Amino acid sequence: MQQQILSRTRLLMIINSLHLYSDGRHAISDDDKVSQMRKEINIDLVRDAQNAGITAFRIDYSAQDPSVGPAR
User: Fold this and answer.
1) Which of 3, 21, 36, 60 would disulfide-bridge 42, Cβ 3.0–4.6 Å?
2) Distance CA 60, CA 45 (A)
3) Interatomic CA distance for residues 62 and 11, integer angstroms
């Protein structure tokens, strides 16, 4: 599951569709963009309180630099 979520193809699609990591001043390679995004993603498994089985997962993304997000 983690490999699918963090795949280069999937992350690059998200990066390009949301125009992340492109401030126009610095040219960053696609590999560097994907590597940075992987560092900023956290995947947590959610367990059922009664039988401790995994029932879901949560994906959090938080960039260190607030200017990473899409232009407004």
Assistant:
1) 60
2) 12
3) 14
Helix (H, G, I), strand (E, B) or coil at 8: helix
Residues, the chain, total?
A: 72
Nearest alpha carbon to residue 34 among 59, 56, 12 = 12
Quote the DSSP letter at residue 71: P
- Residue labelled with tokens 């990473």: 68
Distance CA 56, CA 25 (A): 39
| Element holding 32 (H helix, E strand) | helix 30-39
Name every residue whose Cβ is closer than 8 Å to that of residue 67 and which is 6 or more positions away in sequence.
23
Q: Residue 17: pLDDT band by 50, 70, 90 thresholds?
A: very high
Query: Is the model's pLDDT at 30 over the cut of 60?
Result: yes
